[in-house]
Amino acid sequence: MPNASPAKREPWPALSHPNVVTVIDLGQSGSLYYFLMEFVDGVNLRQILQAGRLAPRDALGLILQICEALEYAHGEGVVHRDIKPENILVDQKGHVKIADFGLSKLLGAAQPDVQLTQSNQVMGTMHYMAPEQIDKPLEVDHRADLYSLGVVFYEMLTGELPLGRFELPSRKSAVDSRVDELVLRMLERNPKRRVQEASEIRLQLEAIAGVASKLSPEVSRKLSYEYRSQATLFGWPLLHVAMGVDPATGRKRSARGIIALGNSARGVIAFGDTAVGVIACGIFGYGLVSLSVVAVGVISIGSVAVGLWWAVGGLALAPVAVGGLVIGYYACGQVVVGKYMMGPHVNNPIAGAFFNPWLGKMVDRVFKVIPIVTILFLAIGCIPQLMAKVSERRRKRHFQRDKSKPV
What b/e string do you get for 193-220 counting C-beta neighbours within 10 Å, with b at 16 or more? Predict the structure, then answer.
């Protein structure tokens, strides 16, 4: 830059952190100060928010990275003083970079007149500024950044700014109620009652989110996915797909809908590791009709089947039981226990009269259906992973489109 000369101020502390945009050089050209910073190939948080509300797990992952950056900067004696979505950059891999420390104030600087930002000036962005930045600019310290971060966090969760009498985040977003208390403490008007350190925010969020929050954004997206159809019936989505762990709660996601697919599924038709529904299919299934490894229902078919009326399985327990080891009022199998039994070594006439008209046809049909049901289980089990991959590809396309917009 022509006629550039070093800025006349206190020495700038070198901030070197993965979540802080690196300042390569700074100086003064005439009456203008300049910064030469690294290029971040990504978009800012404002652009992400304009594209649609963030999922709680994504918001939490970004906030944790911001906390790490602020924790480092505050430890180096630097206050940003203008934390807002425009100054939070996110690269293609989901890594956060905080930009624009041009408004920052050096803690403990002896001569404010030589700083780029005067300590007696009201600097920052309205709605994101802590009250003391307006009322008492001489007393601003690192806690002002934590207030601004609270505003950003609330906006990420709800899509709104916390103005006036605002709703708690958990009432507008699927987050743990403990997040409410943390956000309210971050937004305390009195700095003494506010959260005091960025590390305190980080530790509380990690405790709420559990191990899932420590995964990289790429791994988190692959291990966790949720889709909820806009169309509903009786207040339930027609289709709800949920898999993996929700970082906002640290618990496994649960799918609830007319058709529910996921690790834990509840619906009219439910497919999952644990499935509860009118028709339930999974490793453990409980329903009116249950076709599962461990099946419990009115009609149950599985390796272990317990039925209120009818059960077919390797181990079957029901009033009418058919299988290997069976226990029932009417029991037909290799090893049988019941009132009226039919097996290799026992043939009760009443049991014979009950089972013989339809048993052969029923067993033949069950064995024909088992391969079809097995293939269906495998296919349906792949649906959440396929939907997650499609969603990731869409996210990348949206990212490339948003990246072309000015940051």
Answer: ebbebbebbbebbbebbeebbebebeeb
Nearest Cα neighbor of 262 from 278, 239, 279 is 239
The neighbour count for residue 17, using CB atoms within 10 Å, is: 17
Q: In whole angstroms, what is the distance from residue 20 CA to residue 102 CA?
A: 13
For 94, the 3-state DSSP assignment is coil
3-class secondary structure, 382? helix
127-177 pLDDT tens trace: 888 888 888 877 788 888 899 999 998 988 888 888 888 888 888 777 777
Question: 245-270, pLDDT tens digit by residue?
Answer: 655 455 667 888 999 988 889 999 99
Give the pair of three-digit tokens for residue 214: 């420590």
Domain 42-217 homologous superfamily, CATH? Transferase(Phosphotransferase) domain 1 (1.10.510.10)
Catalytic pick from 58, 82, 145, 246? 82
Helix or strand (DSSP H, E) at 153: helix 143-158
Q: What are phi and psi of 132, to 5 degrees?
A: -70, -20
CB 248 within 8 A of CB 176: yes
- The DSSP letter of residue 71 is H
DSSP state of 237: E
Every domain of the chain and the residues it spans:
42-217
82 is catalytic: yes
Distance CA(130)–CA(26), nearest Å, equals 27
Residue with tokens 């900067």: 73
135 burial via Cβ count (<10 Å: 0-12, 13-18, 19+): exposed
The answer to whether 279 and 287 have CB atoms below 8 angstroms apart is yes
Neighbours of 326 (CB within 10 A): 29
